[in-house]
Specification:
It is built from 8 helices and no strands. It is a multi-pass membrane protein. Pfam families: Sugar_tr (PF00083). It is found in: Membrane.
Length: 179
């Protein structure tokens, strides 16, 4: 009857050595920037979903979709848009984020996490400015593509920060802790 029940376990280890790490401003800012990748993705999903259903947005940038929406009187809210251009607008960010995460690993290896995250931030800022000033669909797609590149760089740098402890060489302190 309880075959599919998830169980959580808290494991404590005793006898370990307490590390003397401090919460510095640099550590705080690094963690803040590293956590921004997931935040940006979630924010974009919420915003782009709402914006692509706004009549003012559709009538300005996607008039054919707007006309189709006005002609359709059904109440079905699922799969109501059939536009390759609107799909390209929505998915360009996610495709760019996926592809740029591969490039970001090379940039991180060559120049370090700091410059990789800086490049991602500048690219994201540029994409935001282009989207804010967009006058046509091409500018919207280009802006979202640049946003995706920024997110891809931020997510790649975030993973490298999380994995930093696993990648460092073993020291005598580590040997004592894991022995």
């Amino acid at each position: 009857m309880l075959d599919n029940v998830a169980v959580g376990v808290i494991v404590t280890t005793s006898g370990g050595k307490e590390q003397q790490g401090k919460m510095t401003l640099f550590v705080f800012l690094t963690c803040l920037v590293a956590s921004s990748g997931g935040l940006i993705f979630g924010y974009d999903i919420g915003i782009s979903g709402g914006v692509t259903s706004m009549d003012s947005f559709l009538s300005r940038f996607f008039p054919s979709v707007y006309k189709q929406q006005m002609a359709d009187s059904s109440t079905n809210q699922y799969c109501k848009f059939d536009s390759l251009l609107l799909t390209l607008f929505t998915s360009s960010l996610y495709v760019a984020a996926f592809l740029s995460s591969f490039l970001a690993s090379t940039v991180t290896r060559m120049f370090g996490r700091k410059w990789s995250m800086f490049a991602g931030g500048i690219t994201f800022l540029l994409g935001s400015a282009i989207n804010g000033a967009a006058m046509n669909v091409l500018m919207l797609i280009l802006g979202r593509f640049l946003l995706g590149i920024g997110i891809g760089f931020a997510n790649q740098a975030k993973r490298s920060i999380y994995l930093l402890q696993e990648d460092r060489p073993c020291t005598s302190r580590d040997a004592n802790r894991y022995s």
